[in-house]
Amino acid sequence: MREQEEMKEKDSRRQSVTLGELCERWQQSVKPAVKPSTYACYLTMIEKHIRRPLGETQVSGMTNKVIMDFINDRQKQGLSAGTVRLLLFLLKSVIQAGKEMGICPGEELYFKLPRQAGKRREIMEWEDFHKMVCYLLNSRRSFELGILISLGTGIRVGELCGMRWEDIDLDAGVLKVRRTVSRIRNVETGKEDVSGGKTILQIGTPKTGSSVRDIPLPRFLTERLRERFFQRRFSPQTYVLTGSGRVMEPRSVQRRFKNLLRKCGIQPVSVHSLRHSFASKWIEQGFDSKALSEILGHSSVKITMDIYVHSTMNQKKNYMDHVLESF
Questions:
Q1: How far is the CA of 300 from the CAs of 157, 198, 294, 308, in angstroms?
Q2: What is the pairing mode between strands 180-185 and 199-204?
Q3: What angle do CA 85, 45, 196 make, to 5 degrees?
Q4: Are 111 and 88 in contact (CB under 8 A)?
Q5: Residue 309 and residue 88: Cα distance in Å, rounded?
Q6: pLDDT digits 0-9 by tens, 177-188
Q7: What one-character-per-residue DSSP string does 173-233 give?
Q8: β partners of residue 215
Q9: What is the DSSP string of 263-286?
Q10: Burial status of residue 266 (CB atoms within 10 A of its CB: 0-12, 13-18, 19 or more)
Q11: Which pLDDT tens digit goes with each residue over 28-43?
């Protein structure tokens, strides 16, 4: 009789667990298994977008209608489909962790993902691309050299920030991507920092295993790097982008890049557009997509083709002319 009462009491406690409480348990369990930057992202997304609307909801009261209302509300707030997909991934992970602890929702949840909305990608036209290359080749400053590396290799902004001279093999003409820089939330400071609180600069390994890679450098870039290195005799630990032991963070790169665009008379685009432009120019020349995927540090060719390869308007017009000529 006493065992039955204890079982009922346990079931009652499980039934009363809120989604907010379950999120807290999940966060503690996942923290050792992910990178600090990933954990900081998860923590912010949960506290900003999940705890506020659903934190007081009992897990036993979670239904597909609750999930759909949650999705609709997030979309009305203007969140992108990608952000909503991340929120659903987090919700699913939290609920699954609850099931493993015997804390179950009111019905089987399906977590139907919204279709990813199409988004116009920023890439440079050939004219602007060449204009910027000419400007960078005539400069002898470290920052402009870094942007030239981005144009010639398609590396991520965070990877550019973390690049040191020790990562460049001038004899082999190879760039070794071994670290990345990002500004993330300081998860040790407490929940009060969610909306614009303190952050820390994170210097760590690239985002995935495939992101740790060796990139062959184009000949012109190897020659420019060799010239710069023997001119200044940098130490191996010197950051390429700053020419010193001080690291530059991605948002500072974006600000300086905007100024660079103005000097070149080029319409504003994000610094990340250099990566898109590199990939698009690669495919436009008819080069191998598998090689491009490896250079960009993707886990599959599909990611490369779906996200980073785009046609410019001039290229599309050229295709249209060739189509008509074939009639």
A1: 20, 36, 8, 12
A2: antiparallel
A3: 140
A4: yes
A5: 27
A6: 999 999 888 877
A7: TEEEE--EEEEEE-TTS-GGGTTT--EEEEEES-SSGGGSEEEEPPHHHHHHHHHHHHHH-
A8: 175
A9: HHT-----TTHHHHHHHHHHHHTT
A10: middle
A11: 999 998 888 888 889 9
Beta partners for residue 169, in sequence order = 174
**Strand partners of residue 214:** 176
Residue 192, pLDDT above cutoff 50: no
Token readout for 113 is 């993902």
Residue with tokens 């912010």: 44
* 122 membership: H or E segment, kind and range: none
Name the 3-class secondary structure at 18: strand
The amino acid sitting at 282 is W
* pLDDT range class, residue 54, cuts 50, 70, 90: very high
**Euclidean distance between CA atoms 150 and 144, whole angstroms:** 10
Q: Which two tokens stand for residue 228?
A: 């710069």
Helix (H, G, I), strand (E, B) or coil at 244: strand
- The predicted-structure confidence for 256-284, as pLDDT tens digits, reads as follows 999 999 999 998 888 988 988 888 888 77
The residue whose two tokens read 């550019």 is 160
Q: Which helix (H) or strand (E) holds 251?
A: helix 250-264
**C-alpha span between 144 and 126 (Å, rounded):** 19
Q: Which two tokens stand for residue 172?
A: 């082999």
> Cβ distance 159 to 247 under 8 Å?
no
Sign of the four-CA dihedral 248, 253, 255, 259:
positive
